[in-house]
Design a protein that fits this description.
Strand order of the largest sheet: 6-7-8-3-9-10
Helix content: 40-55%
Shape: globular
Radius of gyration: 18 Å
Largest sheet: 6 strands, mixed
Structural class: alpha/beta
Number of domains: 1
CATH topology: Rossmann fold
CATH class: Alpha Beta
Number of helices: 10
Strand content: 15-25%
Order of helices and strands: HEEEHEEHEHHHEHEHEEHH
CATH architecture: 3-Layer(aba) Sandwich
Distance between the termini: 41 Å
CATH superfamily: P-loop containing nucleotide triphosphate hydrolases
Number of strands: 10
Amino acid sequence: MATIDQVAIKLQANEAGRTPVVAVDNVYKSFGAQRVLNGVSLTVSRGEILAILGRSGTGKSVLLRLIIGLQTPDSGAVRIHGENIAGLSLDQLSEIRKKMGFLFQHAALYDSLTVEQNVAFPLQHQRKEMSSSEQCDRVKQLLSEVGMDGHLDKMPADISGGMQKRVGLARALALEPDILLLDEPTAGLDPISSAEIDDLVLKLQAERHMASIVVTHDLYSAKTIADRLILLDQGNVTAEGTFQELQGSDDPFVREFLKHS
């Protein structure tokens, strides 16, 4: 018999006319005596951007690690394209991850590699059927799409934080994922660079029609790019909906969070 959360996921999918690409179903996660996630459920469909908001330490980044399979839930399920990834072998999980692109909070570029080499890295390891010239063309195309085509030979230390995020995005898209996970994409950036990253995310989303999840403290960014927002508090989903719907919430925590964010 389907759980209430599973039924809710199916209803959400039917209402949207789409099957969820990512479905987190009643997930619990603790570290020792500390419970981080307390029965969290969410879905993301292709062509949709979901923003996950919340105070520090409330489980946002843990959710991303569960979705990409770096950690496993204590109970509940994480489904990618309908397949529960818990218990998969490393080879099976590796195949799932090929469908995902991940932009780390600080871009996480390899310091010893050039911009071009950083973007080429996943192609060299996961697309060995591509010739060197095909990989080179792909890298140049990706860097052009993120506005970094004039910086191929530069090292990460020689470019700004915003430019590093652009390179990180290009690398995240190298394997043509249909799921994009973004961890604090505007963190540490000035307002102009933050707005440029928001515009770039929207542009890439429109072109690729991915299922995207962004974890952010930047409420303005979430309001700008997200179709839906989820607010976590003490491991629970306190609110979910559009920004306008969250603004209309009567929940004291939601109102306080929006007021101070």
